[in-house]
């Protein structure tokens, strides 16, 4: 049985760190996970790389030779990979059918969702939704007999901000719908996050949504009111002043009457989107704390479960049983209360 994970998500959320964490965890449970770098823009990662798309093409070369910007360059690289998909197939043929592969995919640049007031607008790389490169790549994987689990990573430290939570949820949903994959959402960087805040989002109910809506409203009002020290997407007015001094394109929050008038409609929209996410139970999240083996085990267990990895595999030696992921995961769930 051929199984693999495609690790996706916005830039910098911790995709490579996730790959390293599950590779290390697997090694301690006598399982081998091969990690492949599929990001032509990758600069550094700490996992043991099985093979690397940068041996085929790099973003730096494309930008220099074709005089493309980073976003156009990344799209070019991924289309080049598709045009040379035999290279990928040849590399994969070095691995047996029962070997487990994890693909560290390029990040999505989400300037529009996570930043605020950007004037000189850069492009957005939508490899997972608007540009069908990832979808076409997945068709090849299916044709080669792989069962693919999509792993969509989102940064847990963003979860205190309802606007970012909703935006992240919609991004994940968009990837899920476009790629039509068995899919899990993983909250990365839980070791850095306030877990009490994060837990509110793990099992959304109407009470959590109500508080989310209230927080969203407060946060929007702070931004539009230009409150000093507010929790805006870029840290409120103070952060914007600092950014302006550094010559950045991030502008200070503007308090315009048009924006004020739009606010109630945006608040209703926020509430409606949150209600839909809740009503259809569309997106759930699994927290991952890389400093906690039980938490890493739980994530891997979810991924295995949805691809049915391991079913039918015989233990190599009954005395060599790996640690029981189920009991570790249950302990972790218990720990979350
Ligand atoms: N403490 C902590 N830091 C993390 C974690 N995940 C990622 N980081 C840090 O966040 C930064 C970005 O992590 P990466 O794993 O490179 O993120 P990425 O999504 O692969 O980044 P791109 O490939 O550029 O999209 C690095 O400095 C990591 O050390 C985590 O779970 N805990």
Can you walk through the features of this model?
Belongs to the GPN-loop GTPase family. Residues 226-235 have a biased composition (Gly residues). This is GPN-loop GTPase 3. Small GTPase required for proper nuclear import of RNA polymerase II and III (RNAPII and RNAPIII). May act at an RNAP assembly step prior to nuclear import. Residues 317-328 have a biased composition (Acidic residues). The chain has two domains: 2-203 and 284-336, P-loop containing nucleotide triphosphate hydrolases (Rossmann fold), CATH 3.40.50; 205-282, no CATH class. It is built from 13 helices and seven strands. A seven-stranded parallel β-sheet has the order 3-2-4-1-5-6-7, sandwiched between helices. The protein is globular, with a radius of gyration of 21 Å. The model is unreliable at 110-123, 227-254 and 320-337 (pLDDT under 50). Strand 5, helix 7 (162-179) and strand 6 form a beta-alpha-beta unit. The protein has helices at 15-28, 59-66, 70-83, 85-92, 111-114, 133-143, 162-179, 195-202, 206-225, 236-245, 257-279, 293-307, 325-336, and strands spanning 2-8, 33-37, 49-52, 100-104, 146-155, 183-188, 286-287. By secondary structure, the chain is α/β, with parallel strands linked by helices. Helix 3 packs across helix 4 (85-92). The structure holds guanosine-5'-triphosphate. Guanosine-5'-triphosphate (GTP) binds next to helix 1.
Q: Trace the largest sheet across and list its strands.
A: 3-2-4-1-5-6-7
CATH-derived architecture of the largest domain? 3-Layer(aba) Sandwich
Fraction of residues in β-strands? 5-15%
Low-confidence stretches: 110-123, 227-254, 320-337
Q: Distance between the terminal alpha carbons, to the nearest Å?
A: 36 Å
Structural class: alpha/beta
CATH homologous superfamily grouping of the largest domain: P-loop containing nucleotide triphosphate hydrolases
The rough form would be described as globular
CATH class of the largest domain: Alpha Beta
Helix proportion range: 40-55%
- Output the number of helix runs: 13
Count of domain modules? 2
Oligomer: single chain
pLDDT averaged over residues:
76
Summarize the main sheet. 7 strands, parallel
Radius of gyration: 21 Å
Bound molecules: guanosine-5'-triphosphate
Question: Based on DSSP secondary structure assignment, what is the total number of beta strands?
Answer: 7
* N-to-C order of helices and strands: EHEEHHHEHHEHEHHHHEHH
Here the CATH topology of the largest domain equals Rossmann fold
Subunit structure: Binds to RNA polymerase II (RNAPII).
Pfam families: ATP_bind_1
Family: Belongs to the GPN-loop GTPase family.
Biased composition (Acidic residues): 317-328
């Amino acid at each position: 049985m051929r199984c693999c994970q495609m690790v996706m998500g916005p830039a910098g959320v911790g995709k490579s760190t996730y790959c390293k964490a599950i590779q290390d965890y697997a090694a301690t449970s006598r399982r081998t996970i091969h990690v492949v770098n599929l990001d032509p823009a990758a600069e550094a990662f700490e996992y043991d790389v099985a093979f690397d798309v940068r041996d085929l093409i790099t973003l730096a070369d494309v930008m220099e030779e074709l005089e493309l910007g980073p976003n156009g360059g990344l799209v070019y690289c991924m289309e080049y990979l598709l045009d040379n998909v035999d290279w990928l197939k040849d590399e994969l043929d070095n691995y047996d059918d029962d070997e487990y592969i994890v693909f560290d995919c390029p990040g999505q640049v989400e300037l529009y969702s996570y930043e605020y007031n950007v004037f000189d607008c850069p492009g957005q790389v939508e490899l997972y939704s608007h540009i069908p490169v990832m979808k076409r790549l997945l068709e090849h994987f299916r044709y080669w007999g792989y069962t693919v689990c999509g792993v969509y990573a989102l940064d847990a430290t963003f979860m205190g901000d309802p606007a970012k939570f909703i935006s992240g949820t919609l991004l994940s949903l968009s990837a899920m719908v476009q790629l039509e994959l068995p899919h899990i959402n993983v909250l990365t960087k839980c070791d850095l996050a306030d877990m009490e805040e994060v837990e509110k989002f793990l099992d959304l109910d109407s009470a959590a949504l109500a508080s989310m809506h209230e927080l969203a409203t407060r946060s929007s009002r702070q931004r539009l009111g230009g409150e000093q020290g507010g929790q805006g997407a870029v840290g409120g007015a103070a952060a914007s002043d600092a950014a302006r001094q550094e010559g950045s394109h991030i502008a200070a929050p503007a308090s315009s009457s048009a924006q004020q008038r739009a606010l109630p409609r945006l608040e209703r929209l926020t509430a409606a989107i949150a209600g839909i996410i809740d009503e259809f139970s569309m997106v759930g999240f699994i927290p991952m704390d890389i400093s906690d083996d039980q938490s890493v085990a739980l994530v891997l267990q979810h991924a295995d479960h949805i691809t049915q990895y391991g079913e039918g595999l015989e233990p190599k030696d009954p005395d060599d049983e790996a640690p029981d992921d189920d009991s570790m995961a249950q302990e972790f769930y218990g720990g979350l209360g």
